[in-house]
Write a structure and sequence with these properties.
This protein is α+β, with helices and mostly antiparallel strands and about 350 residues long. The protein contains eight helices and ten strands. It binds copper (II) ion. It is found in: Cell membrane; Membrane.
């Protein structure tokens, strides 16, 4: 109700201002009744252009100051560093060009404002100017595109070098399930047609496949730091997207096919929780939660940073809540956790 009232009040205020300007205009005894802009009008508009320029620069600076802290912390994967550099360089170039061109645009609009008797100066054609403003973007964009293609090929090169762990990410409306490939590091065949809920075969794993028995199905991903992981994505129903923002990783999960993404985590969860910007973010969120708790609202438990797997495709009404925790830890911690997990073969044996 309050937003609606606010909107109505804003509309009424706008109408009032508009009406008052009209009254003000009518009350002016006009010496010049012409509809054609004179020097004074042009000068005002020139100053207004400057005002607008200051407004957009101020807005940019304000946004940097206010919203930088909502950005992701440093990349927690090996390829993430190059990905972030590419992003940063692109942003710096865009920022520089935008600041310069907007400045020039508004300055010239003021400098060459209409004046009685002044004729516009123009070039019908100027080869040197055209050459300059063609060649600079060509060089800069080619550089960015080549660098981007190089980074893309590196990131998307999924192979079995360096002894990777194989993990399947299984998406369905509205949850994630992960399956480790087990001791043999080969995932057993699976197909949605073989799903057998009554026998706890929730992922449709082919029980006849000898590679399947040692697979481990979990609801939380644990990764040893510094070890490469090859993810294989499947979807049960609609398009989902496996999004692991802290590792700068995202891949669509498509029904009927297996897609892949590979990365090496470089920072453990415990180390990430110590990073100054993460500490700040956690503090900020917990402050808001404490305020909500004081008002007796829901969702007020203190929050702790964790890596997360999210769905990044609007896949249905509970899409927003489709997530799974990822824990990056030391090799020993990982081995200890893995030893506690039941394999697919063991859990099948216990149901039958
Ligand atoms: Cu989804």
């Amino acid at each position: 109700m309050t937003p609606l009232l606010t909107i109505i009040v804003l509309i009424l205020v706008a109408i009032a201002i508009w009406q008052m300007t009209k009254i003000f205009e009518l009350s002016q005894i006009k010496t010049d009744n012409s509809q054609i802009a004179n020097d004074k009008d042009n000068k005002y508009n020139g100053y207004l252009m400057f005002g607008f320029l200051i407004f957009i620069y101020a807005l940019t600076i304000f946004s940097f100051w206010k919203y930088s802290k909502v950005l992701l912390p440093e990349a927690a994967s090996e390829h993430g560093e190059e990905y972030d550099s590419l992003m940063l360089v692109s942003f710096i170039i865009i920022f520089f060009v935008q600041t310069l061109t907007q400045g020039l645009l508004h300055y010239f609009a003021f400098k060459y404002r209409g004046e009685k008797g002044r004729k516009a100066l123009f070039f019908a054609d100027n080869d040197r100017l055209e050459f300059i403003w063609t060649i600079i973007p060509v060089i800069v964009l080619s550089g960015l595109i080549l660098w981007g293609l190089y980074a893309w090929t590196n990131i998307m090169d999924i192979n079995d070098e360096d002894d990777p762990i194989t993990i399947e990410l299984y998406a369905q409306q509205f949850s994630w399930t992960a399956r480790y490939a087990g001791d043999d590091n080969v995932l057993g065949d699976a197909n949605v047609r073989m799903i057998d809920i009554d026998n706890a075969n929730i992922l449709g794993i082919d029980m006849a496949d000898p590679n399947a028995a040692d697979d481990v199905i979990v609801r939380e991903i644990h990764l040893p730091v510094g070890r490469k992981v090859n993810f294989k994505m499947r979807s049960q129903d609609v398009l989902h997207s496996a999004y692991m923002p802290h590792f700068r990783a995202q891949m669509n999960c498509v029904p009927g096919m297996i897609t892949q993404f590979s990365f090496t985590p470089t920072i453990t969860t415990a180390e990430m929780r110590q990073k100054p910007d993460v500490v700040d973010k956690v503090k900020g969120i917990n402050k808001q939660r404490a305020e909500r708790a004081a008002k007796g609202e829901d969702n007020t438990d203190p929050w702790e940073f964790d890596y997360i797997l999210l769905c990044n495709k609007i896949c249905g009404k509970s899409h927003y809540n489709m997530q799974m925790k990822i824990i990056v830890e030391t090799e020993e911690e990982y081995n200890k956790w893995m030893a506690e997990q039941k394999s697919f073969g063991e859990s099948m044996a216990s149901v039958q």
